[in-house]
Write a structure and sequence with these properties.
With about 350 residues, the chain is of the alpha/beta class. The protein has 11 helices and 18 strands. The chain has 2 domains: about 5-150 and about 315-345, Quinone Oxidoreductase, Chain A, domain 1 (Alpha-Beta Complex), CATH 3.90.180.10; about 155-295, NAD(P)-binding Rossmann-like Domain (Rossmann fold), CATH 3.40.50.720. It has helices spanning about 40-50, 100-105, 145-150, 155-165, 185-195, 205-215, 230-235, 255-260, 280-290, 300-310, 330-335, and strands spanning about 5, 15-20, 30-40, 60, 65-75, 90, 95, 115, 130-135, 135-140, 175, 200-205, 220, 240-245, 260-270, 290-295, 320-325, 345. The radius of gyration is 20 Å and the shape is globular.
Length: about 350
C-alpha cells in the first residue's frame, strides 16, 4: 500500500513516500475506504515537527482530510445506521470520539474525553487505504470532484462550529477573519458571507487580499504593512470595533485581535500557528463584557449540517494546487511556504 509517512519528527525531509505499507482491515464498527485524494492542513506541519504529548509509531501515516470509496465494511450492527455500502463515495470526519463519555452522550463529540484526530493521534489519511469508524463517513454524490471533496471536511466543519455554533454570527455583525488564504479562514469567509454579515480579512499578501475581495470580503487589511490591525479597525469604525474575531494565529495576533474587538465582542480561536502563549488585561475583558471562546472541529450534528451544504453545492472549498502522492513532500513544501490560497490536495491515482 502507498502512503506518506514519517518515522521521526523533524523537518520536511522526514516525509517519506512508501509503497510497502500494510493494507488495514476493518473491525467491528469500521469501514475501509480506498482513498482517492487527501488534503493538507497546517496541523500536518505540526505533526511532522512534533507536538507536546503526541507520540507516533513508525511508519506514521500523515494526513487528516480525505475522500474515497468504501472498499470493505465490518460488522456495523447496533453501532452505525448511516447505511453505507461498498462502492459509496464518502467524505471523512477526522475527529474520533468514543460516543460513550458524558460529552458524547450530550451530543458534543469534539469535547470527548478521548477525542483524537486522524494523522495526529491515529494513523492518517495520506494512504491508499484507511480504516475509520463508520460514524466518521458521510456519503456524497459520485460525480463530486475528488479534489474539493478531499479538501472539505476539516476546514469547513471547524469554521462552521466557530461561526454558527460558537460565535452565533448574525447578519448585523462585523466579523474579522485572520489569515485569509488558509482553509479555515476561507471557509469562515464563505459562511459569514452566506449569513450576510460584514467581513474584514487580513493577510500579509496584497494578492491574497485582492482574491478575498473577489470572494466577497468587504474590508481588507495587510498586516505586514499595517502597524496594528486593531488600531486600524478602530480608526475605520470610528472606535466601535468589530463584533466577532476569528483568530487562528495566536501569539502574534492576539493583542491586535483584542484591540479590534468592540463591546460585547466575541473572539473565537481554533489555532495558534504563531505560538500558544498569549497575554491580556483582564480588566478589559470584564469592562467590555467580551466572550473569549475556544473551538475544535465539530459534533456529529454539525458534520451532518456541513455535509448537507456540500450536497447542495454550497461551501465548496477553493483548491490551490494538486500533487500526486509520489510528490507528497513538494505538497508539504507548498503548505510550509504560506503562499497557497486555498487547500493543497494530494491525489492517489489507481
Amino acid at each position: 500500500m502507498r502512503g506518506l509517512t514519517i518515522s521521526a519528527h523533524g523537518g520536511l525531509d522526514q516525509i517519506e513516500y512508501r509503497t510497502d505499507l500494510p493494507k488495514p482491515e476493518p473491525r467491528r464498527g469500521e469501514i475501509r475506504v480506498r482513498v482517492k485524494a487527501a488534503a493538507l492542513n497546517h496541523l500536518d506541519l505540526f505533526v511532522v515537527a512534533g507536538m507536546p504529548g503526541v507520540k507516533i509509531t513508525p511508519p506514521w501515516i500523515l494526513g487528516a482530510d480525505a475522500t474515497g470509496v468504501v472498499d470493505a465494511i465490518g460488522d456495523l450492527h447496533g453501532i452505525s445506521d448511516n447505511n453505507l455500502k461498498v462502492g459509496d463515495s464518502v467524505i471523512v470526519n477526522p475527529g474520533l470520539s468514543d460516543h460513550t463519555c458524558e460529552y458524547c452522550q450530550a451530543g458534543e463529540h469534539s469535547l470527548c474525553v478521548n477525542f483524537k484526530l486522524l494523522g495526529e493521534h491515529a494513523p492518517g489519511t495520506l494512504a491508499e487505504y484507511i480504516v475509520i469508524p463508520a460514524r466518521n463517513a458521510r456519503e456524497i454524490p459520485k460525480h463530486t470532484p475528488v479534489e474539493q471533496a478531499a479538501a472539505f471536511t476539516l476546514s469547513t466543519l471547524t469554521a462552521w462550529r466557530m461561526v454558527v455554533t460558537r460565535a452565533r454570527v448574525r447578519k448585523t455583525d462585523n466579523v474579522l477573519i485572520w489569515g485569509i488564504g488558509g482553509g479555515v479562514a476561507l471557509a469562515a469567509l464563505e459562511i459569514v458571507r452566506t449569513i450576510g454579515a460584514t467581513s474584514w480579512v487580513t493577510s500579509h499578501s496584497d494578492e491574497k487580499l485582492a482574491l478575498a475581495r473577489g470572494l466577497g470580503a468587504e474590508h481588507v487589511i495587510n498586516y505586514a504593512t499595517t502597524t496594528d490591525v486593531g488600531k486600524e479597525i478602530r480608526a475605520r469604525t470610528l472606535k466601535r470595533g468589530v463584533d466577532v474575531v476569528f483568530d487562528t494565529v495566536g501569539e502574534a495576533s492576539w493583542a491586535q485581535s483584542l484591540g479590534a474587538l468592540g463591546r460585547r465582542g466575541r473572539l473565537v480561536t481554533c489555532g495558534a500557528t504563531s505560538g500558544p502563549i498569549v497575554q491580556m488585561d483582564v480588566r478589559r475583558l470584564f469592562w467590555n463584557q467580551w466572550d473569549i471562546m475556544g473551538s475544535t472541529m465539530g459534533n456529529d450534528a454539525e458534520f451532518d449540517a456541513v455535509t448537507s451544504e456540500f450536497h447542495a453545492g454550497h461551501l465548496m472549498p477553493l483548491v490551490d494546487s494538486v500533487f500526486d502522492i509520489s510528490q507528497g513532500r513538494q505538497a508539504f513544501e507548498r503548505l510550509a511556504s504560506g503562499q497557497q490560497f486555498g487547500k493543497i490536495v494530494v491525489r492517489i491515482p489507481d
